[in-house]
Amino acid sequence: MRLRELAHARSGDKGSTADITVVAFDPSDYELLRAQVTPERVRDFFAGLGVTAVERFELAHLSGLKFVLHDALGLGVTASLDLDAHGKSLGSSLLAMDL
Fold it and tell me: Distances from the Cα of 21 to the Cαs of 7, 37, 56, 57, 92, in angstroms?
């Protein structure tokens, strides 16, 4: 099963840091997300970006998880030649993670 079957995501950026919030469609799936979508797995999933650290914040009242990916966007939007320098597509990418 892929993450997209249980949740949707939004993502954004600030400098070289990207953030992704994953929210369960059904609140009863929140505990499965907590168990399966760990900071380590998210860091490994985005290993090709050079992410140095991933923080996770639990948003139980929203059935969601917020991830902060440090150094995911090179030197940031204004200094990067990356196709998605803003990190807007990272949320969609993460939804392809196998659970």
Answer: 10, 11, 9, 9, 11
